[in-house]
Amino acid sequence: MVNPSRRVGVSPLELRLFKPPLEESDDRSEEKMLSRSYTSMGPFSSLGEKLDEATGDWALSYADLSPATPKTPAGISFLATNIGYAAVGLILALRGDILFGSLTEIAGIVSFWYHYAQLNFGVEREEVRLALLTDYFTACTAILTGGVYLFQIGLSNLDMDIFFAGAFSLISLSLCWVWEFGYPYIFLHSLWHLGSAYTGYLVGSYHLDIIAG
Predict the structure, then answer these.
(1) Left if phi > 0, otherwise alpha if psi is -120 to 50, otherwise beta: which for 119?
(2) Do residues 133 and 44 make contact, with C-beta atoms less than 8 angstroms apart?
(3) 99 exposure class (CB count in 10 Å sphere: 0-12, 13-18, 19+)
(4) Whole-prediction pTM value?
């Protein structure tokens, strides 16, 4: 009978296989951060580097969407969800809101650029980081403008549909950082595109009806 207290012999190879590679992962992470280049980002290279330093190399990191590419059905469908921004921007502009309509249009164009580069170039590419940084600017500008509109409208004048749409969009976006890879990310981020475009439409419409109207 084997004594339970007796230590079972383990080979050095087995120890390496089953030992959590903490030090190795840290080394790879540090090497990855040191090798990250910003030279091709033009006038935004300094800003991009400082932004990464301030966020622990997180801000300009992005999901690996392989095996999807801009030419696969999943990649094409993902890029097509940016049409929502184009449609909403056009509708709002035609109704008289040139500012928010134009910002939504621009955000959709830059979002398409970023995700096309993400699908086309893969991970750790300066071309993608430049598009991502630009996407931050345009998306945040549109979102902040929508926030100002909500303040002008007043929460008491809003129906529940705008709250549900906004919550759905934010939940979808948040889950993208939980499943930040491949098809799960594509599905969740597609929901963010569609949900945020619809939320923008509702905000712009309320603003036109209550304030501008």
Answers:
(1) alpha
(2) yes
(3) middle
(4) 0.81
